[in-house]
Amino acid sequence: QVQLVESGGGVVQPGGSLKLSCTASGFPFNTYWMHWVREAPGKELEWIATIAYNGAATAYADSVKGRFTISRDNGLATLYLEMDQLKFEDTAVYYCAQTREGIGRGRGTQVTVSS
User: Fold this and answer.
1) Across residues 24-48, what is the average pLDDT?
2) Are 41 and 51 in contact (CB under 8 A)?
3) I need a labelling partner for 69 at 20 to 30 A (CA). Which of 2, 49, 52, 57 fits?
4) How far, in Å, are 9, 30, 47, 91, 97 from residue 64 at the CA level?
């Protein structure tokens, strides 16, 4: 069955960086557009980034554009999210998913931005 496992979260100071990973199995990863979404405390699930099946196209929410970079390695069936210039409001559980709405997402990894 579809399995997505996120990792790489942690506690970081404002202005810091983190790189998240998501390993995929159970479906043809290299044919799927993939997405990162996040859920902050008390807020709805928010789409933040998308990458084409071959990595040739990407899209970002305005809230992260210019600070976050989505990438993938189809040979490793792994999705990445490099996060720079982190802000307090980036604190959330981050999920990789098969759709922008978060369908098929994994269990998530916690990112906390705190001084």
Assistant:
1) 96
2) no
3) 2
4) 17, 25, 10, 12, 17
Averaged confidence pLDDT in the chain: 97
Strands 10-12 and 109-113: parallel
Q: What are phi and psi of 111, to 5 degrees?
A: -120, 125
Nearby residues of 91 by Cβ (< 8 Å), 6 or more positions away: 40, 41, 111, 112, 113, 114
Q: Please report the pLDDT score of residue 32 as a whole number.
A: 97
The CA–CA distances, whole Å, from 88 to 19, 30, 50, 83, 110 equal 17, 34, 22, 13, 13
| Collapsed DSSP state (helix, strand, coil) of residue 29 | helix
First-to-last C-alpha distance (Å) of the chain: 40
